[in-house]
Amino acid sequence: MSQKGRIFVLSAPSGTGKSTVGERVRQRLPRLAYSVSVTTRKPRPGEEHGKDYFFVSVEDFKKRIARGEMAEYAEVYGNYYGTSALVLEELMDQGKDVFLDIEIKGAAQIRKSIKDACLIFLLPPSLEELEKRLRSRGTETEEEIKKRLDRVTLEMEQAPLYDYRVVNDDLEKAVEEVCEIIAKGSLGEGR
């Protein structure tokens, strides 16, 4: 019987580059399993159902919660995000290490239920740079940007609860640091 896999979580305040870093980490570590999150938000330009997220209705998401199918979930900026418990268990039982790109509340839920999960927090180089990144995306309204910026301070207060903190001031350096953390802590086939 193979050794059970381990979970690696990457979280960050909105606009820090979590999705970009996560995507590059997955490219560099192709044996690392990735659990695609479920969300009720609308797809951004270029995002694909089943690849970037599973885009579902609020009703469908709430049914999944009621059936106990979500390992973690949270409502963020009026949308639900979460990870399928069934998919995680299956991958880990196969001895695969699993990479999750999830928000802070979800990471706290994972920490409670999976004690040996490795949590990595991605920090922006500065609040000014974070605001610049959010504005350059061009995907949120001014009101949405303000909500995200108001929440950043609260989110960054959670950084000490993570096993590792990585500053995304240089994309390649941040990706390399996350890959090194995963390689150091890998238990299953994600090595």
Characterization of this structure:
With 191 residues, the chain is α/β, with parallel strands linked by helices. The chain has a single domain (7-185), classed as P-loop containing nucleotide triphosphate hydrolases (Rossmann fold), CATH 3.40.50. Helix content is 42%, strand content 20%. It has seven helices and nine strands. The strands form two sheets. It has a five-stranded parallel sheet, sandwiched between helices. It has a four-stranded mixed sheet with strand order 4-3-6-5. β5 and β6 form a beta hairpin. α1 crosses α7 (171-185) and α5 (127-137) runs antiparallel to α6. The longest helix has 15 residues, at 142-156. The relative contact order is 0.25. Its EC number is 2.7.4.8. It catalyses: GMP + ATP = GDP + ADP. InterPro entries: GK/Ca_channel_bsu, Guanylate_kin-like_dom, Guanylate_kinase, Guanylate_kinase_CS, P-loop_NTPase. It is found in: Cytoplasm.
Task: Sum this structure up briefly.
42% of the residues lie in helices and 20% in strands. It has 191 residues and is an alpha/beta fold.
Q: What is the CATH topology descriptor? A: Rossmann fold
Strand order of the biggest β-sheet: 2-7-1-8-9
Largest sheet: 5 strands, parallel
**Reported CATH architecture:** 3-Layer(aba) Sandwich
The CATH H-level superfamily is P-loop containing nucleotide triphosphate hydrolases
Strand portion, in percent? 15-25%
Total number of distinct structural domains: 1
GO molecular function, one term: ATP binding
Enzyme class: transferase
Domain Guanylate kinase-like: 5-183
Binding site for ATP: 12-19
